[in-house]
Task: structure prediction
Amino acid sequence: PTHLSPEKTQTVALFEQGGFAQSDITEYEKENRLPDVPITVRKVNGYGGGINDPIIELEAVLDIDMVIGINPAVAGVDVYEDGADPFGVALLDALAAMANDNIAQTISISYGTDEANQGTTQMAAEGVLFQQLAAQGQSVFASAGDHGAYGNTSNSLNVSDPSSQPYVTAVGGTSLFTGTNSVYLSEETWNHLATGFGATGGGVSNYWAIPEWQVRTLYPRKPGGFSVQAAVQSDSVATRNRGSDTMRNVPDVAAVGDPLTGVAVYSAINGGWQQVGGTSVSSPMWAGLLSIIDASRQIVGLGRFGNINPDLYFLAFTEPGLIDIKDGSNGDVTLYGIPGYNAGPGYDNCTGCGSMYGELFAANSLVCHLVVEGSAPNTPTGFSGTAGTTTASLKWTAAAQANGYLIEVNQVDTGALTFYIAKDTKVELTGLTPKTTYVLSLFGVNPTGTNLVSATIYITTD
Result:
């Protein structure tokens, strides 16, 4: 669990091509002991609402469930529905409504089609809206597709719009392997093309030139991050794993997408509980994570991200927080006659910069910034704490130039890390293990990042 989003300040918006049953969301929340998150339906372009297709209903509840599952503290989910118009029209009208409303800080889109199907006029019109959303501080994620490197056309390589848009963060899919009690074991590129269970989309855009943040060959390391594993090796994003050095590479990141290692959602019209997958899982997951980070950024006065891709690549190449997926591919030369893309160290066109190491990525995103101006905060003083059985109360003296504070909680016997965010000079830790020693490190935070030197104490629970 993360403690980086203590305030319900975030709204996540979703685009859907039809309606859903609120009772399905309620069942999911009840089964997983989640709060009742407000869901607001925004009917776009005169759409009358209602369930128009069981498959679309399953898509909608999946998107909503993943956002709530990742961030139960989200203030609300706004669902922009247009189930009457063709995909291109519905997407443009929904994006325009999201931009004009300017309510949601984070947006997820689980729909897409090949760039060639969309056409240049459609993609250019979308690009204008995505640029507006980014300028307003609204971050957009989109699914990279579920048909491997080939998209919806089996005899050529294709990437999916809108995920290939440069002001969108494209999300690929992995196969996730866990142990007892769902403990993380490993991930690899999702690819079951040979057995009909899909594969992560990814490849090279035929329309968008490569953005500047995908061609950097050296990212200067910004000290002050929180490290439990080696950072991704600094290398050319474009060429190491057959990516392009002239056109936009997709995806940017990844999360679980394999339906055989997928997630459970409830949809009565589809028969109840369903195990599902696809990058329709991974995109709203990333939107949920960013809503946590965005709330934390507001608490410590950093402002909203907007387009996160420049900062995302900076973090991927300088600090830990993303799990580098090095195994697998998203192609099948036997089936399609041409190979797809292979995973490998660093960036690749299967899983991008990697999958989320959630809380560590969130913490580093608060203290390591691509653009640094001004002076780092002073080291906090007067740091002290008292521990109970499963809780601890911490306090300290305000540090000069600190907008807020980040507390790293390290369980000494296991090395497990948890992070808390605080605006003022005190915080209450919860969920600690009895009779356990923790080392607590306190960092001041401001738009420059943080000071390398922390205030540190030890506490032992009763």
